[in-house]
Amino acid sequence: MDDELRALLNAVLEPLDARGAYIEQMRMDIAKLQESVKQLEDKVDRIQNDVDTMKRDMDAMKKDMVAMKKDMFGVKKDVAALKEGQVRQEKIMERLVIRSIEQEAEIDELRKEISTCPCLCLPICV
């Protein structure tokens, strides 16, 4: 009867040992999973920090772009004013050139008149 009890006890203990080993393996697997989840959480936190930093950088870049657009608008206005001024100056230069040519012609005429006046009393002779 002792052998029978031992056989019966072994028959009950063997599946319990196998289940104990299975449970222990599950505990180790759960511990590994918990560690993996912790690592993933840490990575997600780092990624979130990176995303937050990128958002701040993008906001700063947007502000810089708004400022650059304003500056560019000012530069465009200045360039347009310079072009307009240049056109005006070119017209003035054309008038001055014409006026200078006219004055040179008048001076040449006066020189001719002076050279033809024998008494050098041009205002009186003319």
Detailed description of the structure:
The protein is mainly alpha-helical. It has one domain. 94% of the residues lie in helices and 0% in strands. The longest helix is centred in the middle third of the chain and has 115 residues, at 2-116. The chain is rod-shaped.
What order do the helices and strands come in, and which of them pair?
Layout: H1 2-116, H2 122-125
Q: What does the main sheet amount to?
A: none
Task: Output mean pLDDT.
Answer: 89
Q: How many distinct domains?
A: 1
Helix content: over 70%
Structure, briefly:
This protein has helices at 2-116, 122-125. It has 126 residues and is an all-alpha fold.
Features:
126 residues; mainly alpha; 2 helices; rod-shaped
